[in-house]
């Protein structure tokens, strides 16, 4: 039971670390883009 929780937490951390650069790229693109781009980024983030 404990081992399963540890593995699940580890997978969550790996997925989170992999998503951080993607989110950062989307935020940066929204800053350099227009209002529509920012709104689309917010929608993308909420769907994650």
Summarize the structure.
With 48 residues, this protein is mainly alpha-helical. The protein contains two helices and no strands.
**Protein structure class:** mainly alpha
Secondary-structure element order, N to C: HH
Low-confidence stretches: none
The average pLDDT value, as a whole number, equals 73
Q: What is the helix content? A: over 70%
**DSSP, total strands:** 0
Strand content: under 5%
Q: Tally the helices: what do you get?
A: 2
Distance from first to last alpha carbon = 28 Å
Basic shape: elongated
Task: Report what the structure shows.
The chain crosses the membrane at residues 6-24. Keywords: Membrane, Transmembrane, Transmembrane helix. The protein has 48 residues and is mainly alpha-helical. The chain contains two helices and no strands. The mean pLDDT is 73.
